[in-house]
């Protein structure tokens, strides 16, 4: 890399660190090209990015950002993963590290909060944003399903339901 490329890369990483929600650091000692390709694909499917970066350039880009606390993790052959939605990328990296011992999680930062390996694993155990949305939709749609099932009941059952509500209203 020449000086202009290095400067452009530092600026790119600084923009990323200024606009992302989480940055995770991994050590990828001895991963094959196929393994890295598979990992990148999984990370991309989770809505995140994964990039090998020179530690010195990444440290320069981290300066003055909320993720500055991860600078000590940048030693040896490291790679950075970042995303807006923190749980999905953490899940992908933790699962990949379980099946491939050559990928080591070092830690990361969720905003200005530094995470160690256990923190990243705990984050990976949380439900993702999509899972939480699905649960919320399920909770909201349940009363509508009950109303639909009552209105589809035969007329006799419907009359009994209305009668029960009328009696409850008179008792109150």
TrEMBL record:
Record-annotated membrane-spanning stretches: none
Keyword Ribosomal protein recorded: yes
GO terms of biological process kind: translation
Cellular component, GO annotation: large ribosomal subunit
Domain of life where this protein originates: Bacteria
Gene3D superfamilies noted in UniProt: 3.30.70.1730, 6.10.250.290
Keywords from the UniProt entry: Ribonucleoprotein, Ribosomal protein, RNA-binding, rRNA-binding
MF (Gene Ontology): large ribosomal subunit rRNA binding; structural constituent of ribosome
InterPro entries named in the record: Ribosomal_uL10, Ribosomal_uL10-like_sf, Ribosomal_uL10_bac, Ribosomal_uL10_bac_type, Ribosomal_uL10_CS_bac
Cited HAMAP family: Ribosomal_uL10
Assembly description: Part of the ribosomal stalk of the 50S ribosomal subunit. The N-terminus interacts with L11 and the large rRNA to form the base of the stalk. The C-terminus forms an elongated spine to which L12 dimers bind in a sequential fashion forming a multimeric L10(L12)X complex.
Family: Belongs to the universal ribosomal protein uL10 family.
Annotated function: Forms part of the ribosomal stalk, playing a central role in the interaction of the ribosome with GTP-bound translation factors.
Protein name in the entry: Large ribosomal subunit protein uL10
Species per Swiss-Prot/TrEMBL record: Formicincola oecophyllae
Record lineage: Bacteria, Pseudomonadati, Pseudomonadota, Alphaproteobacteria, Acetobacterales
């Amino acid at each position: 890399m020449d000086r202009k490329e290095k400067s452009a890369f530092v600026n790119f990483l600084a923009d990323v660190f200024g606009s992302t929600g989480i940055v995770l650091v991994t050590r990828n000692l001895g991963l094959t090209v196929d393994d890295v390709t598979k990992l990148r694909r999984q990370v991309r499917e989770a809505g995140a990015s994964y990039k090998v970066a020179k530690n010195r350039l990444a440290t320069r880009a981290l300066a003055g950002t909320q993720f500055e606390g991860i600078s000590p993790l940048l030693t040896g052959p490291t790679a950075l993963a970042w995303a807006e939605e923190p749980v999905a990328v953490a899940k992908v990296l933790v699962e990949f590290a379980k099946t491939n011992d050559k990928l080591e999680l070092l830690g990361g930062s969720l905003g200005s909060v530094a995470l160690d390996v256990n923190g990243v694993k705990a984050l990976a155990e949380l439900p993702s944003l999509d899972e939480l949305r699905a649960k919320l939709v399920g909770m909201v749609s349940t009363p509508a399903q009950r109303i639909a099932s009552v209105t589809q009941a035969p007329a006799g059952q419907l009359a009994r339901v209305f009668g029960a509500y009328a009696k409850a209203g008179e008792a109150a």
